[in-house]
Amino acid sequence: MSLIIYLIGFAFVIGGTAWALVSAGVSTEHVLIVTVILIGVAILTGVTRTRTRD
């Protein structure tokens, strides 16, 4: 459950970043690259922070 909450919060960060880049006039290709990188970071950090230790 906490992973989902973490990823929802990160989705807002990704959306805000993409919106800011589009508003600044950055090309769509670069916005997509940044978005994919941030999605990867969100998944990696979300799993490592919410994973229970064995």
Automatic annotation (TrEMBL):
Keywords: Membrane, Transmembrane, Transmembrane helix. This is LysR family transcriptional regulator. The chain crosses the membrane at residues 30-48. It comes from Geomonas silvestris. It comes from the Bacteria.
